[in-house]
């Protein structure tokens, strides 16, 4: 089993009925497992600063995998390649994931002004 599959299994096991119900109620973007943020933070501790996992987790398209990618990279946002972040923004993602990416990663980078301008130029403004 690959490391990515192991992580996805950890996320799936951490699924919570209440979180699933909430995601369904608010019409969250699928796919998702229904993992509470506290459990995602707990899983992230085992992979702290493993920036090599950011893109593979993001590309799964799974809501919690994208949250996990953000949590893993939050202490070293400047070390993520701009091309990787641009690819993330070019994909169809949940508004809540985009909000976390903007507030936890993009706004903490040295080139945050560039990212702010990029997001403001899009149809939906993120930085308000």
Describe this protein's structure.
- It is a single chain.
- The chain is an all-alpha fold.
- The protein has helices spanning 3-13, 17-26, 37-45, 54-59, 63-73, 82-90, 95-105, 112-121.
- The radius of gyration is 14 Å and the shape is globular.
- The relative contact order is 0.12.
- The model has no long low-confidence stretch (mean pLDDT 90).
Throw out a few tags for this protein.
single chain, 128 residues, mainly alpha, 8 helices
Short synopsis of the structure:
The chain is mainly α. The chain has helices spanning 3-13, 17-26, 37-45, 54-59, 63-73, 82-90, 95-105, 112-121. The protein has eight helices and no strands.
Give the arrangement of secondary structure elements.
Blueprint: H1 3-13, H2 17-26, H3 37-45, H4 54-59, H5 63-73, H6 82-90, H7 95-105, H8 112-121
Distance between the termini: 42 Å
The unreliable regions are: none
**Shape, please?**
globular
Beta percentage is under 5%
Helical content, roughly? 55-70%
What structural class should be given to the helix and strand makeup? mainly alpha
Mean pLDDT score: 90
Count of helices? 8
Alpha carbon gyration radius: 14 Å
How would you characterize the largest beta sheet? none
H and E order:
HHHHHHHH
Q: State the oligomer.
A: single chain
Count of strand segments: 0
């Amino acid at each position: 089993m690959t490391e990515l599959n192991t992580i996805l299994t950890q996320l799936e096991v951490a699924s919570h009925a209440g979180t699933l119900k909430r995601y369904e109620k608010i019409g969250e973007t699928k796919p998702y497992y229904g993992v509470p943020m506290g459990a995602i933070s707990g899983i992230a501790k085992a992979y702290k600063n493993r920036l090599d996992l950011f893109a593979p987790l993001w590309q799964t398209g799974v809501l919690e995998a994208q949250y996990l990618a953000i949590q893993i990279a939050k202490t070293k946002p400047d070390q993520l390649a701009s091309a990787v972040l641009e690819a993330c923004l070019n994909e169809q993602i949940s508004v809540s994931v985009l909000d976390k990416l903007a507030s936890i990663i993009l706004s903490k980078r040295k080139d945050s002004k560039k990212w702010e301008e990029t997001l403001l130029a899009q149809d939906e403004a993120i930085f308000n």
